[in-house]
Design goal:
Strand order of the largest sheet: 1-3-2
CATH topology: Heat Shock Protein 90
Low-confidence stretches: none
Number of helices: 2
Distance between the termini: 14 Å
Number of strands: 3
Largest sheet: 3 strands, antiparallel
Shape: elongated
Helix content: 10-25%
CATH architecture: 2-Layer Sandwich
Radius of gyration: 14 Å
Mean pLDDT: 94
Length: 81
């Protein structure tokens, strides 16, 4: 049995449409909704985080309902000494 550190952030913002969720962690992908079209960014942040978490044998945590909000987080194993 491994011990894990789990970190999550939950919001009650716009949420992400289900059709957009499968692409969310792809490099340069930006969610396109009327609520988010004015928000600037590169589309690299979530891709980089997912890559880093997976390099540490972790898992991304993600849930979202459009119009309700989202939960993002990660779970990584804690090394035993």
């Amino acid at each position: 049995d491994e011990t894990y550190a789990i970190f999550t952030v939950e919001d009650n913002g716009f949420g992400i449409p289900e059709a957009e969720q499968q692409n969310l962690f792809k490099p340069f992908y930006r969610v396109k909704t009327p609520e988010t079209e004015h928000i600037k960014g590169t589309g690299l942040g979530l891709h980089l985080v997912k890559n880093m978490v997976e390099r540490h044998n972790g898992q991304i945590i993600f849930r979202s309902t459009y119009g309700v909000g989202s939960t993002f987080g990660f779970k990584i194993p804690i090394a035993e000494h």
